[in-house]
Amino acid sequence: MRRTTKYPVQGANSLWQLYRTVSFWKVLKNVIIIQIGRYTPFLPLKNWLYRTFLGMKIGEQTALAFMVMPDILFPEKIRIGRNCVIGYNTTILAHEYLVDEYRLGDVVIGDEVMIGANSTILPGVVIGDRAVVAAGTVVHKDVPPGAMVAGCPMRIVRTNEPPSN
């Protein structure tokens, strides 16, 4: 189960009402910083930009690959542990805008996590330490520590539990 908070809206769909929920200037700043970060080949610079200007929490030696897309509206709700690899073109969302409501949820990625290219992390999930997310996976629920997950819908392929005799 994802940990999201629901905010109902009336009238036009929630995305149409975007700037009632988040400042236009915040979104503009975030877009500029994220676009710079997505294309920079310097990992320490990228992490510094995201920590300093977006409020993201990113652990030491974590690598966000080329074209990783953090949430534009609420990047401060993303926390990534130390020594992680976030693969090419992965999207990390902390919001969902639906017709009758929008939802916000923190994304917590543990230490030494590997996320394969072109994955999507949905709001309100926790990915445990040393987990592996296969390329192209849609992470729609929590991933246990040490587990390997894959697919759409996401399935647990392997866990870190000792084999039973």
TrEMBL record:
Give GO MF terms, alphabetically: acyltransferase activity
Mind listing the UniProt keywords for this protein, alphabetically? Acyltransferase, Repeat, Transferase
- Is Glycoprotein a UniProt keyword of this protein? no
Q: Where is the signal peptide?
A: none
Q: Which organism is it from?
A: Geobacillus proteiniphilus
Annotated protein name in UniProt: Acyltransferase
**By its UniProt entry, which InterPro entries does this protein fall under?**
Hexapep (IPR001451), Hexapep_transf_CS (IPR018357), Trans_hexapeptide_repeat (IPR050179), Trimer_LpxA-like_sf (IPR011004)
CDD domains associated with the record: LbH_MAT_like
Recorded E.C. number(s)? 2.3.1.-
Q: What class of enzyme is it?
A: transferase
